Amino acid sequence: MQKLVYITLGTLFVMIGCNKQASSSTVLEAKDNQTFADLDKARIKHLSLDIETDFEKNIITGSAQYTFENNSAKELILDTEKLTIDSVLLANGKKTPFKLGEKDSIKGQELIINVSPKDTIVKVFYKTSPNANALQWLTPAQTHDKKHPFLLSQGQAILTRSWIPIQDTPSVRITYDAKVKVPKDLLALMSAINPKEKNAEGIYTFKMPQAIAPYLIALAVGDVNYQPIDNRTGVYAEPDLLKAAAWEFAEMGNMVTTAEKLYGKYPWGQFDVLVLPPSFPFGGMENPRLTFATPTAIVGDRSMTNLIAHELAHSWSGNLVTNSTWDDFWVNEGFTVYFERRIMEELEGKDYADMISVIGFQDLETSMRNLPEKYTSLKVDMKGSNPDDAFSDVPYDKGYLFLKMLESKYGREKFDKFLNNYFSSHAFQTMTTEKFVEYLKKNLTDGDDSFVQEWIYNTGWPKDLNKPTSKLFDAAEAQLKQDIENGRNNVKAKKVAISTKSTNEWVHFIRQIDVKKNTKEDLAYLDAIYDFTNSKNPEIECAWFEKTILLNYEKANPNTKEFLVNVGRRKFLEPLYLALKESHQLDFAKEIYKEARPNYHFVARQTFDAMLNYQP
Ligand code: BES
Ligand code: ZN
Fold this sequence. Notes:
alpha+beta, six-stranded mixed beta sheet, five-stranded mixed beta sheet, 19 helices, about 20% strand, disordered N terminus, binds ligand BES, binds zinc ion
């Protein structure tokens, strides 16, 4: 049994000596505070699901059978959330007693199953709640084609337990197989070897032969078709969206090859993307073999494909080498952002990579301003909290800046070799922050750990920061300045097609509008030139509506409302609801939210119920 003891005395000393964040968590072991599981006693190795989706009741029913390593334990403890447990059987087919513990507002409920010290197989019969946190059951009206219902799951961070009783911690790795029965006109897909088309029975079987963390088990059921891009990449989407989706992501094959040239062979065989309905709460989710993606990335100019590069990069950082607990989340996301931008630099050139780095930096500035200070360090202490509370741009872009600092200090060539070895030597393992620091000192910095305190444990901004810059953005800023000046000098507005610049340039252009200096008349002038209010590009809409809300440019209100009702991607919704709140338009915010809430996934509802003080 693997024990996770990684911190050396030296590191520990630094942690205790200098920083309250670190000293409050002088953990020698990678203890996951978000699970009930006791991995020293028992550890699941394989999961076998046999489930059926019920689109009338919005529930999943069936069984989960586990094969586990048993260290002479008398009980197997699993995480559950809002599950009904019907019965539990042992390998001999006999029932065994079980009980559900007290409800915990973050962890859910522990399921304690009586086993004998020799048992290694247990089967649980269960059903999910119609309000399962991971699952989103969509009506036909909430889909792209509006003809069939849709079901999607989102496991990260601790939601898998709401649809599968499991040891729901990233420090566990399991293989799985599944039999899933769905309505005959729908296709079932998982983070596993997938079917390419529907069958007459509506019964699908899956296998994930490589060990993954439980947050990466995923299921989607809907009317979707498949279009291959090359022999190992392709796109699933609703029939009427498939062509546009496959065009947008046509570079996927090259992307995988490019990623492989950087950091080693793609480890999962197939890399497909499933485009989900607009209420999917994230931009993308790196479910192995089947990335889940928002349709808002389909903007018609292939400018948002860094999202696919990001999820692909997780095939190494995250899925292959996995954060040990949610306190180490930056180990997943920081590496992935660095890798994502390296892929994009190879494919699209440095100007493109610079643009997304600047946008990321701006997002980081917002996070650093608005977050509770304790969440502005890379390593965080989430004990007693929901991992989602610490979700921000810090693990992403501060993590990126840290790796970028290492790259510039030691040189790209050396750093690339280092990363290559890091991924191959820790493949299918978990990683704590401390284990990474040890590896880094040994293999790159020659024992130097002067970066540890400032970059990893300290809150706020590090001193030796390399702020990203972008030539193309400088030009966009000059353009904005000129436009505003023209408007104020009564130069007649002349319509300009938005295709003159890429999406990222427009996002930057709009972001540079200064709500303290500019006015709603300035917005009206820009709108007369570029017609941002009627844009159908979600990136542009999000950036623009934030300004129109803050400057009270009411002409955009109906479109703002439509956007908020139709799109469920939290990253887009957050700045807009926040702007409404800050500009004392809480009533308008609540009016919209009431209508929009049924379209949002649990994770988005949770965020905005709290932000808007909304009682359902
Ligand atoms: N793994 C994340 C999404 C996530 C993180 C879900 C934590 C739940 C909890 C995914 O890889 C991600 O970072 N998506 C980004 C993509 C972007 C950085 C290109 C998103 O959703 O916006
Ligand atoms: Zn990510």
